[in-house]
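Dear colleague,

Thank you for sharing your sequence with our group. We've completed the structure prediction you requested, and as agreed, I am returning the results in plain text so they can be pasted directly into your records. Please verify that the sequence below matches your submission; if there's any discrepancy, let me know and we will rerun it promptly.
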Amino acid sequence: MARAFLFILDSFGIGGAPDAAAYGDAGADTLGHIAEAAARGAADRPDLRAGPLRLPRLDRLGLGAAAEASTGRRPPGLDGSADLGRWAVGVESSKGKDTPSGHWELAGVPVTFDWGYFPTTVPTFPPELIAELVRRGGLPGILGDCHASGTEILDRLGEEHLRTGRPIVYTSADSVLQIAAHETHFGLDRLYDLCRIARSLCDPLGIGRVIARPFVGETAGQFTRTGNRRDYAVPPPEPTLLDRAKAAGRQVIAVGKISDIFAGSGVTRAVKASGHDALFEAALGTLETARDGDFVLVNFVDFDTLYGHRRDVAGYAAALEAFDARLPAFLDRMAAGDLLMLTADHGCDPTWPGTDHTREQVPVLAYGPGLTPEGYGRRGFADVGETLAAHLGLAPGRHGTAMW
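Please find the predicted structure tokens below.
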């Protein structure tokens, strides 16, 4: 048996999906627009980065080739060499452009049903939901009750939250209810308890996630979200690759927010880490603890939360380059028979209007010692899961086909 590793670069899209227009995202291209901005100097920031986008290791794994196959043009700064790994263009069949849909389909279970969403009206939440949340949570009321960017709403309502003790409840274009509260003034455990109440209230509405958004700081402009975020997701509708691996007696090691996204289903060990450096160190650590036949998943969330949603082109470019620079530290320590696949769950183009995810195709890159380079064109997200299943010697699932 061999080991399998799946790195999900959260929100790293490579051009509009075939149905992007239906989501208002025709023309979105996370990688392409970042690379174009960098090429014209629009992603320069003192003491952070400057010049064209430089991703030589990802390019050799097939990133440039996949991006060109996705959009018909190669992003500036990439040569499309693809001489080190195998690549494909991932196309999602699930109906949402959200985190659970993307992750579940990558693990072999497409989302065929419609999620519930909250309207863009103000107030946005059903009054009976809020009334019950206030009653069961022992709250003096809530703030927000609207669609909002998570950082903007802290600057707008954070000080009032500290004065009144009312948590900030908001949503986005995703199937989600988010609750922000101060980590010490409100209390972290109290916030988690409140999110569990909200999870039960959202179940009848088909809402995919309730997210706890703890923050610190005392005044507007200084509030920052902490690494103690927690996602309360509904479980996948059928067994995923994680469940299948666990049932076969394998370790399934989930690093970062992976375990939350799958509601813990199929996970044998959850490793919490915050920030890309800590996540990468945790990923390196699994090279020592994962046994033959084990499956390791890592989500690099900052691409999405810190740079995509905040429309920070320079920050996203710098994070990509930092990830690319660290990648050899993992590749060089892989053992014979290991397989690493790198992909994404959706897009979040930092040049696109608004602050929401974008409906995009994603790169699918694969590396293993001795694995010959090859391109596989457009493939469904579920094909990623089935390729990993085949590598791990697991029986095929109901959705998708192994690429090799």
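Summary note from our side: The chain has a mean pLDDT of 97.

Kind regards,
the structure core
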